[in-house]
From TrEMBL:
Function: Small GTPase required for proper nuclear import of RNA polymerase II and III (RNAPII and RNAPIII). May act at an RNAP assembly step prior to nuclear import. Small GTPase required for proper localization of RNA polymerase II (RNAPII). May act at an RNAP assembly step prior to nuclear import.
Keyword Hydrolase: yes
A GO molecular-function descriptor: GTP binding
Record's protein name: GPN-loop GTPase 3
Keyword GTP-binding: yes
CDD domains the UniProt entry points to: GPN3
The protein's assembly and partners: Binds to RNA polymerase II (RNAPII).
PANTHER family recorded: GPN-LOOP GTPASE 3, XPA-BINDING PROTEIN 1-RELATED
This protein's UniProt keywords: GTP-binding, Hydrolase, Nucleotide-binding
Length: 285
């Protein structure tokens, strides 16, 4: 029997631990079994029970206090994750061998772990050897994404993780419940973005011809290949949370032996959507 895992990624402060806590509550309400593994050696507090905590193996504070290493916070975290990669047997022992497991892996927020360091790729490969079907869940803070250039930066970070890890990936805009009504309407265009239109809307603010050409090429890459889309995540909206979970489950074929429905899709023309209907999960594909 296969096992299932969500690799919960994203920049620091994007809401990874809050996402895990919300998803645990939602899945338990559905009578689904779910466990959480903390993989952040610098974590201090989280409001969900963990089946395994990397801090039992190694902690950032211990690395930073080691006089022979003399690492700062970022270097210390990279050292911890590389040490973890050399001790995957600890994780294997912690996970056990329960069939049909569903695990949320709450990862650190240092973006370089997902872009150019091999640690997370090694973790994915190890999980796959243990018969896990892994889905990447990449979170970005919706409050950060309300400006076009910041949005492009977030898209490129998500795309870099997709290319590096080579697993199904669901991209999520978190903290939708913290946005003002005006910002919520504005954010619609970023869920399934028309990059060329976005480029035209901001053409007056780009002064450098080289920068304009580069931005156009990036927008074209994203738009032409439909490589990145985002789902909204409002922790107060049960239906919206369920839609996110359906997308993730579908990507890893969770419950494939059951009668399974494809996840709901948002309208391909987000400008025509009614915001209240979208985030109450009332828009059909």
């Amino acid at each position: 029997m296969p096992r299932f895992a969500q690799l919960v990624m994203g920049p620091a402060g994007s809401g990874k631990s809050t996402y895990c806590s919300t998803m645990v509550q939602h899945m338990e309400a559905m009578n689904r079994s779910v466990q959480v593994v903390n993989l952040d050696p610098a974590a201090e507090h989280f409001d969900y029970p963990v089946m395994a905590d990397i801090r039992e193996l190694i902690q950032v504070d211990d690395v930073m206090e080691d006089d022979s290493l003399r690492f700062g916070p970022n270097g210390g975290l990279v050292f911890c994750m590389e040490y973890f990669a050399n001790n995957f047997d600890w994780l294997e022992e912690s996970l056990g061998h329960v069939e049909d497991d569903y695990i949320l892996l709450d990862c650190p927020g240092q973006i370089e772990l997902y872009t150019h360091l091999p640690v997370m790729k090694q973790l994915v490969e190890q999980l796959q050897q243990w018969e896990f079907r892994v889905c990447g869940v990449f979170l970005v803070d919706s409050q950060f994404m309300v400006e076009s250039f910041k949005f492009i930066s977030g898209v490129m970070a998500a795309l870099s993780a997709m290319v590096s890890l080579e697993i199904p990936q669901v991209n999520i805009m978190t903290k939708m419940d913290l946005l003002s009504p005006k910002a919520k309407k504005e954010i619609e265009k970023y869920l399934d973005p028309d990059m060329y239109s976005m480029m035209e809307d901001n053409s007056d603010t780009i002064k450098s011809p080289k920068f304009k050409k580069l931005t156009k090429a990036i927008c074209g890459l994203i738009d032409d290949y439909s490589m990145v889309r985002f789902l909204p995540f409002d922790r107060t909206d049960e239906e919206g949370i369920n839609i996110v979970l359906q997308h993730i489950d579908f990507s890893i074929q969770y419950g494939e032996d059951l009668e399974f429905k494809e996840p709901k899709e948002v309208d391909e023309e987000p400008a025509n959507l009614n915001y209240d209907e979208l985030f109450q999960g009332k828009v059909d594909s």
